[in-house]
Every structure is written in structure tokens, then in C-alpha cells.
Amino acid sequence: MTGLAKILSIAGSDPSGGAGVQGDLKTFSALGCYGMGVLSALTAQNTLGVQAVHRVPDDFVAAQIDALFSDIRVDAVKIGMIGAAENVEAIAGQLAKHAAKNVVLDPVLVASGGHSLGGDELVAPMREKLFPLIRLLTPNLMESALLAGGRMPENPSDMRSMALSLHKLGAPAVLMKGGHLSDGDAYDLLYDGADFTEFFAPRLATRNTHGTGCMLSAAIAARLGQGADLIEAVGDAKKFLSAALAAGAFLDIGAGHGPPQPFFALWKNGR
Fold first, then answer.
1. Given this model, what pLDDT does residue 179 score?
2. Strand 103-105, strand 136-137: pairing
3. How many C-beta atoms surround the C-beta of residue 179 within 10 A?
4. Catalytic-residue membership of 43
5. Where would a tag sit more exposed on the chain, N or C end, judged by fewer CB atoms within 10 A?
6. How far apart are alpha carbons 7 and 219 in whole angstroms?
């Protein structure tokens, strides 16, 4: 890959700017990439949670993707919130048609506040249609249990077993996000289809954690699009997220959980 990396986010809209396509575009830009966005769903949400979801019709989702790939070289794709099973097929069809590469699937199934974002109806279509097209799956512990139909992992050993289960279900590589483990460092586990790699970062005391999963998967996609290998991309993304969380602790955005600060290297006084 030569020149400016061009990274596509296929995800829902977050009008508060902390997650979804809006958050992904900030992450892509902060990492020196050109970001593009396809909307799969519209949400009414803020730092307090998701209040409503409106699905974008599948034919229009497909049209957005086709328009971009037919004109612009896409070096990597991050898939976030999809919203409905019909949209899974539309997305998969276009990614296959255009031989999309470096596809990172962040299986957003349930909002942190409990609001359904597609949930169970997306599980089978994701496994059948999207797993064969992706390079990496990045579930949190709850999402991994939904996708595999098992018990939610409670420790690193469980996470290893779950990664193997998801690999057997068709995911070529799996990054198990262990942020919901009860104590210790923020622990993530990568299984690349052959080997496990562990990633650790100190837990930071901050309420501004809205969109952390989106940010991590977007950063991985950006680094893959820039030519990094999988382990390097995950390690770089993990460091980027830690720095954004540390800087974001000083942001005053809304009454609930604000976002991390992806522009920590630019906004020296951006509190």
C-alpha cells in the first residue's frame, strides 16, 4: 500500500460524536488516515445512553458501499453497529463483490446501557455471511458469548477457550477484549489462528469511556490499512486507546460517560 491510507467505517451514527461512524472518523484522522463512513443505522443517543434506533434500508446501505468502492481505493474496513439482519447480507454482498481487505468486525450487539442494537437476530447472519470475509473479530466478553452461544468468559483461561470457539465458527482471528474483567490490568487476548498474544494496559480511573470499543477496532483497522501486521496493529491500537483514555479523563462532555480524546497529540489544552 502506498500513499494515504483510506479507511472505511460501516456503522451506526452517534449524534453525540463519541462512538459509531463519528467516533471512527476521529480515530482514523488522529492516526493519519483518510476516513470514510457508511451509515447502517441512525441512533438517538447521548452520554447517558441510547434512546432509539432507526435502521437504514439494506438497499441504501449497499448503495453507499458500492459508491465508495467503485471510486476510491479502500485499504481497510471497520464494521461496527449493523442494526438488522437484512443489513448484514447487504454489507457482506458488497464486501465480497469488491474483494474488501483488512476487514475488522466489531460485533456491536447490545449498548452498554442495555438497549438492543440487533442482538440475537444478528448472530447467525454475522457468522455465516461476515466471518468468511473478515481479517479480525473484536468482541467484548458479552458479545463473544452471544456469538458463540456459550457462557460469558470470566477469566483469561475462559477467554482463550472462547477465542478458539469463535475461530472454529469461522472467524480467522479473534481479539477478545477483557475490559469487563473484574480486576487487574486492562487485558486483551489475540488469537491469530495459530498463536495467542496477550496485551496489557493499566486501568485508568475515568468515567469517559463511551466508544472505547469503537475506538480500538477503528485504530486496528487504520493500522492494518497502513500496512501493519496483525499483532503490531493491535498493539499500536491498544497504546493509542490508553493515551486517549488518559487525555479524555479531563473532558467535560455531557452528564454521563463522555468519550476518550483521540486528538490528544493535537489538543494540548483541549479540556
1. 79
2. parallel
3. 16
4. no
5. C
6. 10
